[in-house]
Design goal:
By secondary structure, the chain is mainly alpha-helical. It is built from 15 helices and no strands. It has 2 domains: about 190 residues, MFS general substrate transporter like domains (Growth Hormone, Chain: A), CATH 1.20.1250; about 210 residues, MFS general substrate transporter like domains (Growth Hormone, Chain: A, Up-down Bundle). One of its GO terms (cellular component) is plasma membrane.
Length: about 400
């Protein structure tokens, strides 16, 4: 098997992990009805998953840094498969929560290990594109996994989705064990050394952008299925197509974000994307499918395009902040993204209980607005740093 095919296999594994995380948003109403719980309680399944993923992944990866990479990937995938089997067979809400905790532990280790392996087995000069392919698998779960999961859940029950993921996971374990070469572990980077970067104001501001941007997004996205059914007035038959359109737009948005960043820079792309993100969420609150589903679909596509255009831009923004610690910065950003998803789902659940389901879009827009303000502060800080550096260089030149 060529290295390209091995990387595609890693992307498929990333797709399975992404589907297991995002699918709950797509079948939230079905989980709530089946388990006899509120939409808010069902939404906390995302909070729990994201929180465990964010907090445990850096710790577990630090503890297993020396473990051979193929072995770590297969064992992590095994934990992930067991969690999906538990989700499929165990009845009730509490056992499902426990299964989600185990699933998040396995998922975080699978994704980080797969990204590392993809860089190691990539042909010379293809490391970045190999990593991008694995990340694309995770993104594809939003495009294909969530709407397809909704269809499977409607036909065979929502638990069948996790049963199917478990079967595909077992198959992937055997293929990975046979095809991926043995790769030595890394020299561990102490956690305290990783978190020391947070003391720098520009790093703290940069990660705050991720938290409020994705947190705002998550407040609205977590409860998207019930929102479309009960607020936007979409019929059940339109939910899967709506989620599919949203997913396709997210992929295009990522591409546009990367292109725009290369062409017009981080500042304009990030600010423009977040402004459009805010406007889309606000307009969504006034859009109803009573006459036609088209306006709802259009707003969903604009929202997804805008939201995901910020993804690659923000990743590049963080790497620029600390070029010498790009790996650590991206690792911290992964944890911050999951914390944001957890916070967004939690805040959205409280909003539904205390205010209304429709309030999630407004609160989401407010979160993104905070991210936009933080980004403006960061850009001004960096501009001032550059000016100070220029003055220092001029001063040194004068003295010479």
């Amino acid at each position: 098997m060529t290295s390209a095919w091995k990387i595609y296999l890693l992307a498929i594994v990333s797709f399975l992990v992404g589907t297991s995380e995002y699918i709950v948003s797509g079948i939230l109403d079905k989980i709530a009805d089946s388990l006899g719980i509120t939409i808010t309680a069902a939404g906390q399944l995302i909070t729990i998953f994201s929180l465990v993923y964010a907090l445990m992944t850096p710790v577990l990866m630090a503890l297993t840094a020396k473990v051979e990479r193929r072995k770590l990937l297969v064992y992590s995938l095994g934990i992930f498969v067991i969690a999906n089997i538990l989700s499929f067979v165990l009845p009730g809400y509490v056992p499902f929560v426990i299964a989600r905790v185990v699933m998040a532990i396995g998922a975080g280790m699978v994704v980080v290990t797969a990204l590392g392996i993809s860089a190691e087995i990539a042909p010379p000069g293809k490391q970045a594109s190999s990593i991008a392919t694995v990340i694309m698998g995770f993104t594809a779960s939003l495009i294909i996994g969530v709407p397809l999961g909704r269809v499977v859940a409607a036909a065979f029950g929502w638990k069948s989705v996790f049963g199917l993921i478990a079967i595909l996971g077992v198959i992937s374990m055997f293929i990975l064990n046979k095809t991926v070469p043995k790769i030595k572990g890394d020299a561990p980077v102490p956690l305290l050394q990783q978190f020391a970067l947070l003391k720098k104001p520009k790093v703290a501001l940069g990660l705050a952008i991720t938290f409020f941007w994705l947190g705002g997004y998550s407040v609205a996205y977590t409860y998207l299925s019930p929102y479309l059914l009960n607020v936007s007035g979409l019929n059940e038959k339109w939910i899967s197509p709506a989620l599919f359109a949203f997913g396709i737009a997210s992929l295009i948005g990522s591409k546009l974000g990367g292109f725009s960043t290369d062409r017009w820079g981080v500042s304009l792309t990030l600010s423009g994307g977040m402004l459009l993100h805010i406007l889309a969420l606000i307009v969504l609150t006034f859009t109803h499918a009573a006459a036609s589903v088209i306006p709802v679909f259009v707003i969903l596509v604009i929202w997804s395009l805008a939201a995901w255009s910020s993804g690659p831009t923000q990743q590049y923004n963080l790497v620029q902040l600390e070029p010498g610690s790009s790996g650590v910065m991206l690792g911290l950003n992964q944890s911050m993204m999951q914390l944001a998803m957890a916070a967004g789902a939690g805040i959205g659940g409280i909003a539904i209980e205390q205010i209304s389901l429709s309030s999630t879009a407004w609160i989401g827009a407010a979160g993104v607005a905070i991210a936009m303000v933080v980004s403006i502060v960061l850009f001004r800080l960096r501009k001032q740093e550059r000016l100070n550096m220029q003055k220092l260089e001029q001063s040194m030149g004068t003295h010479q």
